[in-house]
Write a structure and sequence with these properties.
heterodimer; A: 247 residues; alpha/beta; nine-stranded mixed β-sheet; B: 321 residues; 2 domains; seven-stranded parallel β-sheet; five-stranded parallel β-sheet; 8 helices; 27% helix; binds flavin-adenine dinucleotide; binds adenosine monophosphate
């Protein structure tokens, strides 16, 4: 089986969110970049587990990004995977990124494409579905469990208000979230090995962008907390009822 | 021209967040000088004419039992036929797991720019831009959509329903349904609970509650308020509470009217999932807990002493013995 895992680069979860250039750009000075947690903890680790269970599995990673993605790609390779492909572009529209991933997936004839549930910076939850539509493949989103049974993919996914177990033939696209696997820490052997794994840089395919970011905005600051004494919690209930009209 | 809203249904009933999306769609139609129509797939028992009360003129139905389970490819194909049939140029979803499976596919199929996680009406003063959450609720972006057709997936609890009057026409829609490539083996729905993503009020507990045996403090208050329950990540990780209750950057992002956090420190990753709540109440024994900075109301105190008194006061207010 050939698996392609989509890896994106996001600011660390504790990064200060601020904007530059008249609120048109994320202020990235001093920001620590990480592999998007859903891609790393769930998509990549589950793919590595599948390869561990069947060593004939070929596992490739793909990132659509500029050279500053290389450190997170190396970190991903330190966790596992045979090689990585970076599509060299700065463009960040979801449709454009999906078009690049679809082109790579088609060229490499992968049986399975894993994405994360969403990026923690753009929060699009859209690239997996777009890739699937571009390739005319089934898309199972929000997967919490993935196994191969009798040559088919058996996937448990979150649905509105519960879970659903699905079965589909390969090839297909799956977006991954909590439950798929447990976070791993790269070991020394992995880190050393990652240095010599191939990282192929390819130029982007021709594709459109459908949207662009006009500007950013920070939420208004809170007015400050109104504290109620621990001696009179009923006063809190009164305030919530009468002042905040919250119930 | 028209605005088409997808109504999500479960067990024969339209989901609450879809009414919000319907009202939003009606407003978008008003802003763009056209009418709002809706589509619902599967067997629905609700009186769909009442969608007129949300400003919908026509509800298109494909009442096939095969559509009671959502298949992303099948739904996308039907929706694209409906878009053609209604000449819709704006398509609205409520941004839930169903929408996240379909809207991106529809975006590709129609070459329609998609804004997922929208929190406001589009600004049509100069092109078409829609405000959405980014950085897991820590900021917003204004997304310019440059395509003729546009898709908006509205975050639940971000638009206040505007009551309208009228009765929607029901129009059965003869769609080509196609066959699903994904076989649904089983469905396991949690029934009876208030779904977290749609809840008006959420009561949430953290590690400060010491153990699952103390969760009565959370669930009793939640029951009294008709609220959903949530928890911090470590609480789900150590299996005090089920995973679907985990809110935050790596869990569910919610925006209820009222979020009550009990024994939760308010780490930045937790705040990311809840800071769009309208009113935040924090109960924590540590006055330095970071959550107080994001809160509207708070009590610095021991949850085990404070919560029973709060529960009593709510009982009194609600007239429950
Ligand atoms: C990449 C990443 C992603 C993460 N994603 C998430 C996420 O999505 N959601 C999330 O929640 N966390 C997330 N975390 C974890 C987060 O950083 C915190 O560790 C976590 O939120 C802390 O949970 P807590 O507040 O329940 O526990 P603690 O930090 O242990 O806090 C317990 C609080 O309870 C208070 N307390 C103790 N006893 C009492 C009492 N008797 N009465 C009242 N108060 C009391 C304490 O003062 C303290 O503030 C993430 C972390 C990382 C690194
Ligand atoms: N630039 C990128 N390169 C590779 N994969 C990406 C990129 N951006 C997003 N993805 C994948 O698509 C998923 C969903 O992203 P999004 O639609 O932006 O929320 C992520 O979890 C990644 O797996």
């Amino acid at each position: 089986m050939k698996i392609l895992v989509c890896i994106s680069k996001t600011p660390d979860t504790t990064a200060k969110i601020a904007f530059a250039d008249n609120n048109t750009k994320f202020a990235s000075d001093g920001v620590q970049w990480i592999i998007n947690p859903y891609d790393e903890w769930y998509a990549l680790v589950r793919a590595i587990e599948l390869k561990e269970a069947d060593p004939s599995t070929v596992l490739h990673l793909v990132n659509v990004g500029a050279a500053d993605s290389d450190p997170i790609i190396r970190k991903a390779l330190a966790l596992g995977g045979d090689e990585a492909i970076r599509v060299n572009t700065e463009n960040a529209d979801s449709f454009y990124i999906a078009s690049q991933i679809a082109a790579i997936a088609k060229e490499g004839s992968y049986d399975l494409v894993f994405t994360g549930k969403e990026t923690i910076d753009y929060n699009g939850s859209s690239i997996g579905g777009m890739v699937a539509e571009l390739l005319d493949l089934p898309y199972i989103s929000h997967a919490v469990k993935f196994t191969v049974e009798g040559g088919n993919a058996v996937v448990v996914r979150e649905i509105e208000g519960g879970e659903e177990t699905d079965k589909a033939a390969f090839p297909l696209v799956v977006s991954c979230q909590k439950g798929m696997a447990e976070q791993r820490i790269p070991n020394m052997k992995g880190i050393m090995g990652a240095r010599t794994k191939p990282l192929r840089v390819v130029e982007p395919a021709a594709a459109d962008s459908l949207t662009s970011i006009a500007s950013f905005e920070l939420p208004p600051a809170k007015a400050g907390v109104k504290l109620v004494s621990a001696e009179t919690p009923e006063e809190l209930v009164r305030l919530l009822h009468e002042e905040a009209k919250a119930f | 021209m028209s605005v088409l809203v997808f109504l999500d249904q479960a067990d024969g009933h339209i989901k609450k967040s879809s009414f919000e999306a319907a009202s939003y769609a009606a407003k978008v139609a008003e802003l763009t000088g056209t009418t709002a129509e809706a589509i619902v797939l599967g067997i629905v028992n609700d009186d769909l004419a009442t969608l007129g009360n949300y400003g919908i003129k026509t509800v298109h139905t494909v009442a096939e039992a095969a559509l009671n389970n959502m298949d992303a490819q099948v739904f996308t194909n039907i929706l694209s036929q409906a878009v053609e049939n209604t000449s819709a140029d704006v398509i609205v979803f409520s941004n839930n797991t169903t929408a996240k499976a379909i809207a991106p596919r529809l975006s590709v199929k129609l070459k329609a720019g998609l804004v997922s996680g929208a929190v406001a009406l589009p600004d049509t003063s100069n092109g078409f831009t829609v405000k959405k959450t980014v950085f897991s609720g820590k900021a917003f972006a204004h997304i310019a959509v440059s395509t003729a057709k546009k898709i908006i997936a509205l975050n639940p609890n971000s638009y206040t329903i505007v009551p309208a009057s009228g009765s929607a026409a029901i129009a059965p829609f003869a769609a080509t349904i196609g066959t699903a490539k994904v076989e649904v083996v089983s469905v396991n729905k949690v029934t009876g609970e208030v779904p977290l993503s749609e809840a008006d009020i959420v009561v949430s507990g953290g590690r400060g509650l010491k153990g699952p045996e103390n969760w009565g403090l959370v669930t009793e208050l939640a029951d009294l308020l008709g609220a959903a329950t949530a928890c911090s990540r470590p609480v789900a990780d150590i299996h005090w509470r089920p995973h679907h209750e985990h809110v935050g950057q790596t869990g569910l992002a919610i925006a209820p009217n009222l979020y009550i956090a009990i024994g939760i420190s308010g780490a930045i990753q937790h705040l990311a999932g809840v800071n769009r709540s309208k009113v935040i109440v924090v109960i924590n024994k540590d006055p330095e807990a970071p959550f107080f900075k994001a809160a509207d109301y708070g009590i610095v105190g021991d949850a085990f002493e404070v919560m029973p008194k709060i529960i009593d006061a709510v009982k009194k207010l609600k007239g429950v013995a």
